Amino acid sequence: MADPKYVLVVDDDPDLVEAVSMNLEAKGFEVGKAYDGQEATESLGRRKPDLVILDVMMPRKNGYELCAEIKGDSALQDIPVILLTAVGSAVNSTTYTHADGMQVEADDYIAKPVDLDKLVSIVEELIK
Question: Chain centroid to CA 63: how far?
């Protein structure tokens, strides 16, 4: 049997990281967890994931910055990135914009609150 696919989940909301992780693990994925962009960068240096689920609004390094780093790194650029974003509803009150997301070449976007079944199906689609 093939090794399970490894997904890195990055969000500063521990409850969301746990919920996403449990749903992915139930589908047979191996899950890594990071709680801000800097922690995710360190994790990427240790082990290359098959896919990254990335929150946009995080401390120390936001999801757009991290996604741009991943897509700009020849060793990592083939990793699919799904951005989780509450930006749609908060766009008037934040410095984040949808244009930022389009510039960083994420592979997909999911609005918060996250539909976990939809997220898992997108993960399966992107890394099968």
Answer: 8
